[in-house]
Give the backbone structure.
Amino acid sequence: MMNTTKIFASMRLLHRISKLSERKIHEIPLTKDHYGIKRGPYASVTDQDINQFERILSTNNQILLRPEDTAEYNRDYFRYVRGLGTVVLKPRSTEEVSAILRYCNIRRLAVSIFGGNTGVCGGSVPVFDEIILSMELMNRIVSIDEYSGLLVCEAGCVLAKLEDELSKKGMIMPLDLGSKQSCQIGGNLATNAGGIRLMRYGNLHGSVLGLETVLANGEVIDLMSNFKKDNTGYHLKHLFIGSEGTLGVITRVAMSCPVAPTTQNVILLGLKTYNAVLQTFLQAKKQLGEILTSCELIDQASLEYTVEHLKTSSPIDAFPFYILLETTGSHKEDDEEKVRQFLEFSLEEGMVTDGIITSEPSKIKKLWQLRERIPAATYSNNFCLTYDLSLPLEQFYSIVPAIRKRVGHLVNIVCGFGHIGDCNLHLNIAGNILSEEIRKLVEPYVYEFTASLKGSVSAEHGIGLLKPGYMKYSKSTAAIALMKQLKSIMDPNGILNPYKVLPYN
Ligand code: FAD
Ligand code: ZN
């Protein structure tokens, strides 16, 4: 029978800051040099511009000019990129965003939009001296309506704060990310963030009912809606979801939020083969049905590396694969019965060999940390190449052994994990020195492999600064040309987040 008694007493989940993120700001290479980017035809900020910004922004603490204050806005969370922005503006209202953009557009001043700065692709910080538009002061919740499930808030609200406020009314956000203590809802929309609830609640294209955005010329476009059903004309909101700040600044959001579940179970299963993973996933969908919230894959290398490097432990070990399942629902006995039947079936059929199930909040947290801390463990190396791929389930894992064969002997770890329930694999390759040899063995191989299966080279993290050159592996030349046309209509002077998303060379 299932081992449900393994205790977590020895689990010490230390919050270790990774080596990459230990880099001092001046140790991060300047983006422009590192990636050989040529400055676009933009104006440079003058004293008159600062005077104008001071007129637009009502209080002094809305403008940062001292290098020691602006430094943090010039580097990303992962310490991959560093810009040279000298001015940070913090608008408090849509009107202020509009006035800033109108002025910058006339002056041809480029603008970089800064949310919670947790993005993975270097999109949130400037490359050169773009004006940094930080959304942090636009953090008001306008309304929460428990009858319709409607949340209306400003774009700078931090995801965890929204979650806290919703929980007071028995509701939850339809998305949950490991970065929720810092990331903002505007950044979530701009990146079309996925996360661990996507399997249950779908992506943001479904749960965002409406948004307000400011175009590059300062025009405010009101696409707010309080309803799930609204077929009046083209669905423009979708253009802004996932546009990574290149088409407009998102200032306000209307979201459909589900009722909070009252029961929760988390199950960690050990499996011997990838075929067993597939069969177990299928059974989980069939038998757990509407209560299945997440289905995550963790491979042996991911688990062992995380356990070793974060000085923690796992209640089950030595399996080639693990599945982490979460169920949430509203009827304890019904949920438990479903879970029991699923586990019995999986054990009897020989798909699953060992596992653990818990409904205790502290143990749930610890099981989830085995999955959520994998990136931190791999980032504890000097370099970590990270790929975020959508792949068909049958070939979902095959890229991992293929890469291991190519570079396993040259690096410290090659591991695969991620949201198998959404066909989204995270592939991390980490080591001491990122040589040209390693890079050439990995790229473009990873991208070509993904393209050959008609997958996506960016399942959830976006394109940002780091990946414009790889978009061609997932989008046709005609599709990219249409994107460029849209950009030139909506931002003819190219002032919003230049050098990002669209291939620039
Ligand atoms: P930022 O990093 O500030 O910006 C991201 C992009 O959006 C930039 O191009 C920026 O210019 C633009 N932008 C920001 N705000 C606005 C706005 N108001 N209007 C227009 N453009 C804007 N991502 C996932 O998808 N799934 C995960 O499970 C996940 N887990 C993560 C776990 C950790 C520990 C970390 C560090 C990151 C994780 N991420 C994940 C990536 C990241 O958290 C998400 O991409 C998040 O949505 C970014 O939000 P942000 O507010 O930090 O945006
Ligand atoms: Zn992810």
Observations:
- The first strand starts at residue 63 and ends at 64.
- Residues 194, 418-419, 426, 460 surround zinc ion (ligand 2) (CB under 6 Å).
- Confidence is low (pLDDT under 50) at residues 1-18.
